[in-house]
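Try this one yourself first.
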């Protein structure tokens, strides 16, 4: 599995000639190094309905003639914009031709902002994505919650993507605790420094991870991690 950080909470995940993009927020992110129209993917995966996770989902799905895989209410909303969808629910899993997706809980809001105000966006979620015999856990936007221990008990996680930006999600200290519970082979931070309210020093997080004996990899937008180089 190859995991490429595209900025904010967006990742490109590739294995066996297949690829998916998670939470595409590219055209609105000045730090992004890839344009939405440049992506070639087999599916678009979304954790929740906020614009900094969905902004380019419909255009990418249409360009690639592929489905958006997300929670039920959000999927129906995006279908009204002309996207093909595969709706799912928390705790549910599905085997796609390119891999397996299971939706996990996340503690976060998920209202969808429209010109007429917010509409109901279902629930926020995390994702377990298995491709090429490896499993990536994308926590989505979330607080620290103890059921992460249950996620670790039921899934062997190779790569965990955890928010560290604080204010809207867990911050550095809670993300270190989450990593200690999840026990991934390596953890990548996300959802930080895109906006002033979530500006943190990722090196502080990396240092705290190292002190706990936890493998950490801070990626800049455009940088990749190959799981074949990661040792448990």
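Now uncover the answer:
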């Amino acid at each position: 599995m190859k995991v490429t950080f595209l900025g904010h909470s967006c990742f490109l995940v590739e294995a066996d000639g297949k690829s998916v993009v998670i939470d595409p927020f590219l055209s609105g992110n000045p730090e992004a190094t890839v344009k939405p129209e440049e992506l070639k993917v087999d599916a678009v995966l979304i954790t929740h309905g906020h614009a900094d996770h969905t902004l380019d989902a419909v255009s990418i799905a249409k360009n690639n003639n592929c489905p958006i895989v997300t929670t039920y209410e959000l999927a129906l909303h995006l279908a009204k914009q002309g996207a093909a969808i595969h709706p799912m629910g928390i705790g549910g899993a599905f085997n796609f031709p390119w891999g397996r997706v299971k939706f996990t809980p996340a503690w976060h809001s998920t209202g969808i902002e429209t010109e007429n105000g917010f509409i109901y966006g279902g629930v926020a979620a995390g994702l377990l994505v298995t491709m090429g015999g490896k499993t990536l856990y994308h926590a989505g936007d979330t607080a620290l919650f103890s059921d992460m221990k249950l996620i670790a008990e039921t899934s062997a996680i190779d790569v965990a993507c955890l928010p560290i930006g604080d204010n809207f999600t867990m911050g550095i200290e809670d993300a270190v605790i989450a990593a200690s519970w999840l026990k991934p082979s390596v953890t990548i931070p996300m959802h930080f420094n895109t906006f002033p309210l979530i500006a943190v020093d990722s090196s502080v997080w990396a240092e705290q991870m190292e002190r706990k004996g936890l493998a950490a990899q801070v990626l800049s937008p455009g940088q990749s991690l190959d799981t074949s180089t990661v040792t448990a």
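Discussion: Residues 2-219 form a domain with the Metallo-beta-lactamase; Chain A fold (CATH 3.60.15.10). The helical segments are 51-54, 57-64, 72-79, 148-154, 172-182, 202-211.
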